[in-house]
Design goal:
about 725 residues, alpha+beta, Beta-Lactamase, Helix Hairpins, 4 domains, 5-stranded antiparallel sheet, 5-stranded mixed sheet, 23 helices, elongated
């Protein structure tokens, strides 16, 4: 959406974006990156096309034309170089001419699509030749010519329409239609010409000319033929490595696999077409005569020379120094960076120089370490002869650090690389310094953290001590306040008895004082309980509790209270026994039932239980006003009362659930609340069941005591 409504070429989005945001530095960076990438692609594509044109078109034509003969003693290396250079120039000029001829705004994707459509003209011949044995060479050539012509007329020429070329005579077809028509014409021509052509080519012969003819060429002849192109030493070593022998036997016959290997060697230097021509002539003794073969070899040797120059140029532009010695420990290759790092005198290094001279010269300059130079030279020569790889780092001239790595080559010889790693070593030293500093900082931060943690621990202990002191004071104060409060209630009770049920103002005042004293007593009792729970004065005494007895006790306690509020109290007893402190658990359930009856206007209250594995979940359900989910945790805080409780004018201190929460945590029981506003609430506590071992002991004790201690259902006569 950045360029919505603007005519921006998609190929320039990378430049248009930073320009749109006024980022000049980023624009320059994007331009340089795009320019370097485009330049690299142009160079690679141009060189690749030029090599293909030279190897597959120009070279075969020159070889077959007979323009160059072996009797000529002229140097053909420059001719080969000129062919490659002219090919590069022609390809570049053709591309530039096409660029000038088409419209300037044509995107690169369209040009690429046009190229792909041209390459697609090879597909019909490949597919038909693969699946139809009746296809002929003449049909394939005719179909390819027809398809390329149709592509030129229907696809390539229309791209020049906007450059002023008169193309009104062309059919009005879009790109897809033109591509389909060209491919159909291509395939049709192949089929028709193949059917009409009297010449038929055997599939095996059409697929590839058979160069795997053994018994026609000796290893010496094969080496001589290929060596004119690649060099005798290189050819001998390559063939010996392929055969797996230390040296070649010139009189031995070449196997088909060896002949094919030789073809691949030639194809890497002069192209597959020229390599096939040379080896076919050498194997079958037909086509080109011996003189023509030698002429072709002369031309190919120039191609090898060109490849050598290309390799030397590549090595000279490497950042690493490279030195190569042969199996005779003679220097056969090096690059410019190697000479710069070694700092040899001008003209000191030459081809075929014994590597012993170089090692001795380096030892005299101290580049081999502090050892005796006389012993270091033989040791390094023996290391090269053994062909063992090595890698080490050494301080070098000018304060540099050089990494030297040597590896043996197949068939003998050794290649050594020299890399300047001074920059990496400097970074490594900086990292070591940073690491040491970091360790000191970590130790310092650790000490500071330990000191801070010590201060926090002291503050926590002080706070706990203050809290315990406050709790003890509150418990003592609450206990002391309860005594005069109980005395005051006693006096008020006496006054109420004296007043009787009279409705005068003094009697009403006495009732209000009695209610106020009762509320104050409940508040002090709750505060006393919270203080005892917080200070750890309570010690739970868990024992086996029959759930049926516990529920019956609660039913008798709250039956009348529920009836007074026109509520139905239902209790579902259970035969299970649970393990808990009976007094504390009774107090929790008592608070649950009291709250349920207090905040339920109509409906009823249910006390029941559910089995949960080895635990029993005791629950109190009601049909009251319910609790909002946002306040489901706040109700367990001290002195917290819900808004609707105040609207219902219900008495309450907001301490009951806080006490229940503390008791449940002290007993290790899980307490849960679920509620839906307007539908009701459910308060639950999960208590463990009595283990089987305790039930057995308890049953035995009851059996031993018999029924003599049971007074229920007995009638006393007196």
């Amino acid at each position: 959406t950045q360029f919505a409504g603007q005519s921006v070429n998609p190929d320039t989005y990378v430049l248009a974006l930073p320009i749109a945001f006024d980022r000049e530095a980023l624009t320059v960076l994007a331009f340089l990156g795009g320019f370097s990438a485009a330049t690299g692609m142009v160079i690679v594509a141009t060189v690749a096309l030029a090599i293909m044109v030279s190897n597959d078109i120009v070279m075969p034509l020159i070889l077959r034309s007979g323009l160059v003969r072996s009797s000529d003693k002229t140097d053909l290396s420059q001719t080969l170089l000129r062919v490659r250079r002219v090919s590069i120039l022609v390809v570049t000029l053709m591309a530039y001419a096409y660029y000038q001829a088409i419209e300037a705004g044509v995107p690169l994707a369209s040009i690429g699509l046009l190229s792909f459509s041209a390459a697609a003209q090879f597909a019909p011949a490949m597919l038909i030749g693969l699946y139809w044995t009746g296809a002929s060479r003449l049909g394939a050539l005719a179909g390819l010519s027809t398809g390329v012509t149709a592509w030129f007329v229907l696809l390539l020429l229309p791209s020049f329409a906007d450059s002023g070329v008169a193309l009104a005579w062309l059919p009005d077809l879009d790109f897809n239609q033109g591509a389909i028509v060209s491919l159909v014409l291509n395939a049709t021509t192949i089929i028709v010409v193949s059917l009409l052509s009297a010449e038929r080519e055997a599939p095996t012969e059409a697929a590839s000319a058979d160069l795997s003819v053994s018994g026609l060429l000796t290893l010496g002849e094969l080496q001589s033929t290929i060596g004119r192109f690649l060099g005798m030493d290189v050819t001998r070593e390559a063939l010996a490595t392929h055969i797996g022998a230390a040296d070649l036997e010139p009189a031995a016959l070449a196997t088909p696999a060896t002949v094919q290997f030789g073809e691949r060697l030639l194809a890497g230097s002069i192209g597959s077409a020229s390599a096939r021509t040379v080896l076919t002539t050498a194997l079958h003794h037909r086509g080109l005569g011996p003189e023509a073969v030698m002429e072709l070899l002369d031309r190919t040797s120039q191609a090898v020379q060109f490849n050598r120059e290309l390799l030397e140029s590549t090595l000279d532009n490497m950042s690493q120094g490279v030195a190569v010695v042969d199996r005779n420990l003679q220097l056969v290759g090096w690059n410019r960076r190697y000479l710069e790092l070694m700092d040899y005198p001008e003209g000191f290094v030459h081809l075929g120089q014994p590597v012993e001279e170089l090692i001795r010269y380096n030892a005299e300059r101290g580049l081999l370490g502090e050892g005796d130079s006389g012993s270091e030279v033989p040791k390094r020569l023996e290391h090269l002869r053994s062909g063992n790889p090595y890698r080490y780092e050494r301080d070098w001239l000018g304060g540099k650090v050089v990494e030297i790595q040597g590896n043996p080559m197949p068939g003998g010889g050794y290649v050594t690389t020299y890399s300047d790693i001074t920059h990496f070593k400097d970074i490594e030293k900086e990292l070591q310094l940073v690491n040491e500093t970091l360790e000191q900082r970590v130790l310092q931060r650790t000490r500071e953290l330990q000191e801070a943690l010590g201060e926090v621990e002291e503050a926590r202990q002080s706070a706990e001590a203050a809290n315990q002191s406050k709790t003890r004071f509150l418990a003592a104060a609450s206990h002391d306040l309860l005594q005069p409060m109980n005395a005051a209630r006693l006096f008020v009770s006496i006054l109420r008895q004296q007043q009787g049920d009279s409705g005068d103002e003094q009697a009403q005042l006495v009732k209000r004082v009695d209610r106020s004293l009762t509320a104050a007593e409940e508040l002090l009792s709750a505060l006393l309980d919270i203080s005892k729970l917080d200070s750890g004065m309570y010690e739970p005494e868990p024992e086996s509790i029959p759930v049926a007895d516990l529920f019956e006790k609660l039913r008798r306690r709250f039956k009348a209270l529920a009836a007074n509020r026109d509520l139905q109290l239902r209790v579902h007893p259970s035969a299970h026994c649970i393990l808990s402190d009976p007094n504390l658990l009774y107090r929790i359930l008592q608070n649950f039932l009291a709250n349920a009856i207090r905040y339920t206007e109509s409906g009823g209250v249910l006390l029941g239980c559910r089995l949960r594995g080895d635990h029993l979940k005791l629950s109190v359900w009601d049909t009251g006003v319910g609790i909002d989910e946002s306040e489901s945790q706040e109700i367990f805080q001290e002195f917290h009362r819900l808004d609707y409780a105040q609207r219902l004018d219900e008495r309450g201190l907001g301490l009951g659930l806080a006490i229940c929460d503390r008791i449940a945590r002290m007993l290790g029981h899980e307490m849960e609340v679920r509620s839906r506003p307007g539908r009701g609430s459910c308060f639950s506590i999960t208590v463990p069941l009595v283990p089987d071992s305790m039930i057995g002991r308890q049953s035995g004790a009851e059996t031993a005591s018999g029924d003599h201690t049971r007074l229920e259902d007995l009638r006393v006569l007196c």
